[in-house]
Design goal:
- Pfam families: PH (PF00169).
- This is PH domain-containing protein.
- By secondary structure, this protein is an alpha+beta fold.
- It has 1 helix and 7 strands.
- The longest helix is centred in the last third of the chain and has 20 residues.
- The protein is globular, with a radius of gyration of 15 Å.
């Protein structure tokens, strides 16, 4: 299943349209982002397994950061990038921000609850 595709932006920031895709059929949970609502191909993706989604305390309610939230992600295996990345996103309203946070946290929880292949969960 797919999520909704909604625009997120701040002045001076690049506007992107995003879709939350939950884990299914071996595909990982991701936050896909697009250049426009009509785009068929995602410009990029943030893998959600093991991610954290939160409102940064230092930015909460500050100027153009009023509806910002952060999605952390680990570098993909097999890449030369290492560590954790924090992607800062902004919604148009506080209500939209909390809807995004809720949807992303649900996707993260389902992705993190899955057991990697070859590592059986105890009964």
């Amino acid at each position: 299943g797919g999520g909704r595709k909604t625009g997120l932006s701040l002045s001076g920031w690049k506007k992107r349209w995003m879709t939350v895709t939950p884990s299914s059929g071996g595909s990982p949970a991701q936050l896909l982002y697009y250049d426009s609502p009509q785009s068929k191909k995602a410009k990029g993706a943030i893998m959600l397994r093991g991610s954290d989604v939160f409102v940064p305390k230092r930015l909460r309610g500050t100027g153009s950061y009023q509806h910002c939230f952060c999605v952390t992600s680990q570098a993909a295996e097999g890449t030369d990038k290492a560590g954790t990345t924090c992607t800062l996103l902004a919604a148009g309203t506080e209500e939209e921000m909390y809807k995004w946070i809720h949807s992303l946290r649900e996707a993260v929880a389902s992705a993190t609850a899955e057991t990697p292949a070859g590592r059986g969960a105890p009964p």
